Fold:
Amino acid sequence: MAQRPHTKAALFWSFTRIALQGFGGVIAIAQRELVETRQWLTAQEFVDDWAVSQVLPGPNVVNLSIILGGRFFGWRGALAAVAGMLMAPTAVVLCLAALFANYADLAVTQGMMRGVACISAGLIAGVVLRMLNGLSTHMLGLWPCLALFASTFFAVALLRLPLVWVLLPLGGVGIFFSLRILKREKGKAP
Amino acid sequence: MNGAIEGAGWAVLWQAWDMFLHFFLLSFMAVGGAMTVAPDMQRYLVAETGWLSPGDFNNAIALAQSAPGPNVIFIPLLGWQVAMQSTYVTTLTQTHAWMIWPIAIASALMVLFAIMLPSSLLTYKFASWANHRQEHLGIKAFKAGLTPVVIALLASTAWLIASQVPEAPVAWLPAAMSVATAIMVWRTRVHLLWLIGCGAAIGAIGWV
Structure:
């Protein structure tokens, strides 16, 4: 890790900034800010932490804040990061609800939401493309990784199978073969 | 009169406790994010208790998605809505109408706390446990083996969002916007808020 936040307050404000820019999903902004702008994580570390955030219960970006905050400053850091991620957006959404009780029904608002949805699908897809770049150096090899990627995508996006049914077998296959390779490497090393 | 208000007070507390418990337990099942428990919440708040109408529920999700921040903020919004719609809260606050605001805010924060607490503690415990064992083969294999799978889950999220966009006046435009955005995120360093602003503008003038 090249850089790190100096104080818990800096951590809090960074996550507030990330959260408030996250229209239609925070992951794309988080990747940009944490990996490229602030360089608190390498691209590989980001994917690793993201993997853990996704398989544990709870909102993914909130789990990611907990993992990072905890790593930098222990439980207080985790609390600062989660507070940053949730406080301002909750305040904003409640104000919106109080001000515009029927705001969601306006044609212009509906149109804007459709437009933002098209963009947020693209933002997430862009992060996917960036992450796929990293698979070329993955220990399982590029093609086995792509096969796991494609079958997971097929099962979740196209067949719409429940997440647990997909995570357990396909995640299990990935973990099993990674462990085998790691053990073999360890056996070779003196 | 006082009896009715006192009764309503107890009913509000019971309603709050019931929601707290439900959201607390649901937290353990929220693998893959808060949105994955939305169907169960809809069942509980709309079909089972009738505290919200189907329209209220959908509006809460739409509003939360159009606001900045993680999707999980639709949870405090639901807590807020339940308090606003509750006949018990209306009875309780009939003499002091302003009381509805603190009650709604408390309700919103309570359900957010309930849904966050179990999963957050679990994540924190697991992360600090794994942090001390970074060189452990099992942990390394766990992270590496899951990488292709979780990237595919993200890709699925993108796919599901894109496929829920209704047919547009210009039929090819939504897909073109998504693809163009993906390439810009992948290849350039353009600020993401510009892209979001363009999308909102294109939607506001009615092209998608």
